[in-house]
Amino acid sequence: MTAKRPVPSEDERRFLLRSLTEVGPSKPVGYLPLYTIKDFVQLSPETVAAAATARGLTTVHISPQECCIKSGALYVYHREALASLLETQAAVINAAGLPLDRMRCSQATALRGAGA
């Protein structure tokens, strides 16, 4: 028999979503594993992505097959802030062997893992 997980409070769910809800000019990108969104935040990734898009942000849903995160991940980014970050850190990004294109950089980072 599987033990039931306690239902998270609204504050706990908000805390978990901070990685995505704080994305903007001062935080270019955030992500959450799809498992966290579904099982702990108790929302669908599509609902979370729609809320981010309504705020003028861009979202990328990366499947488990394309990602080092077992459940896949939802990335949210602020286009201008991420472009600026990529531009100012171009030398470091090139040295790490990552592409400078926003979309490809997000995917490459997801494949390698944040700590890789």
Polypeptide structure, described:
It contains 6 helices and 3 strands, in the order H-E-H-H-E-E-H-H-H. The chain is globular. A 3-stranded antiparallel β-sheet has the order 1-3-2, with helices on both faces. Helix 1 packs antiparallel against helix 2. It has one domain. The protein is 49% helix and 13% strand. The chain is α+β, with helices and mostly antiparallel strands and 116 residues long.
What's a quick, concise take on this entry?
The chain has six helices and three strands.
Task: Record the SSE blueprint.
Elements: H1 10-21, E1 29-33, H2 34-41, H3 45-54, E2 58-62, E3 73-77, H4 79-88, H5 90-95, H6 102-112
Antiparallel strand pairs: 1-3, 2-3
Helix pairs in contact: 1-2
List keywords for this structure.
116 residues; single chain; alpha+beta; 6 helices; three-stranded antiparallel sheet
Supply the number of helical segments. Answer: 6
| Largest sheet: spatial strand order | 1-3-2
Main sheet overview? 3 strands, antiparallel
Mean pLDDT: 84
Structural class assignment: alpha+beta
| DSSP E strands, number | 3
The helix content is 40-55%
